[in-house]
Amino acid sequence: MSLTDRAVPGAPCWVSLLTGDLAGAQAFYGAVMGWTFRRGSLGEDFSVALSDGRPVAGIGNIARRMGVPVSWTSYFAVEDADVTAARIRERSATVAVGPLSVGPGRAALAADPAGAVFGFWEGRTLREWQIGRQGAPAWLELRTRDAFASAIFYGEVFEWATGRPDRCEVRYEDEAVMVRSGGRTVACLRGGAIEAAPDPQIRPRWHVYFYVDDVEKAAESAVACGGTVAAEPAESEVGREATLRDPDGGLFTVTTGSQC
């Protein structure tokens, strides 16, 4: 697999599952998504998921070691991880891990002021990985209380909407913030219930959508492999979708749509 020099700064550049059971995750996602796997370059606790030979996501057996919940994590490309970490801290958010040297670059995990966890990456990226490609992540969605406050935070941290040709653009559509790179929607930020008291059972998070040909089949396979259906298959604005949970607790959505 070839590496490109740099992804567009501020754009999504990878997604990774932090799990507590690597073999179990591979069996589950292999059955549900049709993925195959190869060993990652970071050791036996890491693997790369492939769809038709193209990289889709990373899986790391590190959730228990790091003391973090099993979850899908979205990573964003940055030019300087130290500068990004400083921007995050300056805005009363948290850098939980790193920046650390990892393979050909540097990575860190952080949480925005509302508590949504995300990662950022300084370094070369996989050329074949792309949001919106069939079999790969269809898009990323921040689910939070105040999408506009979050857009200001991420816009300042990742330099969105600066007017520079090498940065992401931001559009406000239907009370959501759409993030675009190279003419494609790569992420969106959605809020709601700002006036209501926060629900402790609902935590802000970056949520990953994966493209599938058949949502019902994916949901049936998830249940057969020990997972659960968190939201039954239904029609959305962009296609049919269902939200699933893997046996270790990782939450994600499968969709027939290709954009936010």
Automatic annotation (TrEMBL):
Residues 11-123, 136-257 form the VOC domain. This is Bleomycin resistance protein. InterPro entries: Anthracycline_SecMetBiosynth, Glyas_Bleomycin-R_OHBP_Dase, Glyoxalase_6, VOC_core. It comes from the Bacteria. Transmembrane segments: none annotated. It comes from Streptosporangium nondiastaticum.
